[in-house]
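Problem statement: downstream parser choked on a complex file, so we are re-checking the raw output for the magnesium ion run. The parser issue turned out to be on our end (a line-ending mismatch), but while we're here, posting the original submission so the record is complete.
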Amino acid sequence: MSLTNSPVPSASNEAARRFVYDFDHPHDAAPMSLKFLLGGKGANLAEMTSVLGLPVPPGFTISTTACRAYLRHGWPLSLGHEINQAVSRLESRMGRHFGDDSDPLLVSVRSGAQFSMPGMMDTVLNLGLNDASVEALVARSGDARFAYDSYARFIAMYGRIVLGIDHAHFNEHLRRAMADEGVATEGALSAEANLALAAQYRSVVQTHCGRAFPQDPRQQLHEAIEAIFTSWNGARAHAFRDREGIDHELGTAANVQAMVFGNRDETSGTGVAFTRNPSTGEALAFGDFMVNAQGEDVVAGTSITRPLVDLDDLFPIVAKELSDVFARLESHYRDMCDIEFTVEQNRLWMLQTRPGMRTGAAALRMAVDMVDDPAILLTRAEAVSRITGDHLDQVLHPTFDPSTEVEVVARGLAASPGAAVGRAYFDAPSAVAATQRGESIVLIRAETSPDDVAGMLVAEGVITARGGLVSHAAVVARGWGKPAVVGVSELVVDARSARLGDITITEGDWVSLDGSAGHVVLGRVELASSTAPAELEVILSWADEIRAGHLGVRANADTASDALAARQRGAEGIGLCRTEHMFLGPDRLPVVRAMILANTDEEYHDALARLLEVQRADFVAILEAMDALPVTVRLLDPPLHEFLPDLDALVVKEATLGLDDDETRLLAAARYWHEQNPMLGVRGVRLGVLKPGLYAMQVRALLEAAQLRLAAGGDPRVEIMIPLTISAPELALARSWVIEASEYVARHYPVPLHFSVGTMIETPRAALLAHQIAAHADFFSFGTNDLTQMTFGFSRDDVEGKLMAPYLEQGLLEHNPFDVLDAEGVGELVSLGVRRGRSTNPHLKIGICGEHGGDPTSIATLYRCGVDYVSCSPYRIPVARLAAAQAVLAGGRNAGPEDSSPSHQE
Ligand code: ADP
Ligand code: MG
Ligand code: MG
């Protein structure tokens, strides 16, 4: 799914007029447009409140519409009034008032965009406290420690998040206070210490902002909302949206919610949970909580957390209630949810939910389990749709090579699976700079925050000293499929180094980590590919059911061992078997050169005959590996000079050491075959035209191999492919060579052999003249690499380095067209070629080969263009099978007159 293409619902009249919605406001919008209006967090709070009737502290959401209006034209006229009204409603609902000196209303202010987005403003808790209302909180709660703790936390949060003061300035005081009282946690500080801290924090604000900490709760609220809206355009948020392809115009919502207090006392706490295990997918709730703590203490990984199961003992009633909530959330969202909750004096409050991030292994297991789960009853199509290419990449992720001995120097939590190797860097900017120099890096941090995402993004893997399995580092790493080990407690991280006992890791040192085991190893460990979970095959078999008869998946394989590897991964044949490597082996190159240099017919045919022998043996092996499946063999494609020695080197040698006879002839040949633009030169079928007999020899080798397979009881399915065709007469000529060679072979074998002849469509002209060319072809295979190169006029080998980066940065291209098929231009040529080809040859079979065959986005485009199969490298086959099924499910195929696209809407 492309996020940029998400529907922007036309604003209803109400939405146009209105900026603020209470959580229990009745909505009739579809989930997607509700998220567009209220952001993900706001929409889910509204759903939990009104649809699911769960205990959610009351509040209201200021819509994304307000944010967009604010960012364009400044604070909207009616917004202040609407917020005041919403605050009044909240006050009367809670029976508490903002700034009240006997029973103050306190709120949290939380950002939340349509798509979950790090880099946005953090949440401010306890907003509404001031010097007067904190005294009221002391009196009401009878707990001065709790009240002053809340106030101190609020000033520090507000100062950091809304006023942009570095948190170190506050932490300095906090650390001193903790040292003075000799306590280990913030929650253990005395009332007096917290009161003193609050005063110190206020003077930090005064010093850094030149104005006093605002005492008016309405001003606090206004400033906080403005800070949320402004953070939408912050650099980190912007970079994240660029990477994820999220529209910069969407804006964020702001949620204002009555506070509940997990830091009230020992019967209170706060936690984060997943309804199933997000690492393994096991159907058991999973999470962390802390007693007598507030807000993000759990997520920040700054303090000691307890596993969710401990709730059973500590808060048995809440534990029971929570497990009911889990069941209801799962059956409502029909998915694993992650939640944030708080317990205030044994009462459960739900603060957030959303479908949770998961590892590839967990995604596979959950998708398969949920098909059989009576509360969810996922269809197979839905199960297949829930798996992404990234999930598969993860389960096919490397591990430490089992045959190498590794010495584990530290252990932490296995936060995100896979093994990684890189040089150690200890902050995001140095990590980014190192990768720009071409280094592979591992990011090592005490803990991570949204400030570190740029570094995590470029890292091979992440190691943190603190944090649990739901810490920021763990969640972000899993989402991106980056191996991570968190909570390596003996690790001490400094600015440019880290210590592990008496070992020091300095910036630039090699480190390895195994995120599946939680291991940290010094140096570079060899990596090996992993064994995938059993659910992978189930999902892929469902994917195969869905795409059967609609979109096939073949492999590009040139050798028997590649063919076997591809077949084992589910390839349904070979879409591209290149024959050039058969010419390049050390035993073959001299023969090829002999052919090129041949002076007489006899020499020439002698060389061809020797090439025939070796090729036949190669073909036998490949046909055997792909027995009973189609094998498309492309006749020789590269320019002849690729088989000759380097021209410049020969010239130099001639001038210095002199050349022997053979070398003199090679130099002449190299000069003769040298081209200014080899990619536009004597390649493909053009070679056949200039070197008659070459293709006939290849066809003979192939058909004789097929005959040998037949004789051995095999079932060879040969498809002969002519490369680089530009016209119908050219293909007709090439086809005549093939037929002639086949008739020659047929005379020597008793059993007739069926084979087909087709062509690659890789020049724009061939696509345009597809209706003429199709008259001589049984099949087409679009060579999208060359087609892209020639359609853009981009030399593939040259643009990647210099040109592509600035084009992508300046938005002149959305993707590198060699990675993601250009749907608008190249895709249009494919689509045209398909329709024109089928207009004269309705039975034309059409595939594509090239790098795009393994890219999910390109596969979707190609399916819509009407191709019958894609062909990709053997190791991309699983991803292609999945993506092909998802393309079929998405529909939208246009295959010309004989369109047989399915209507696969489940
Ligand atoms: P994020 O998007 O970073 O998760 P949230 O808005 O969910 O930020 O806030 C983070 C945490 O703050 C929540 O998990 C919860 O613990 C705490 N929190 C937010 N709102 C409230 C509230 N009204 N009462 C108590 N705690 C809250
Ligand atoms: Mg947060
Ligand atoms: Mg949250």
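For whoever reads this later: The mean pLDDT is 91.
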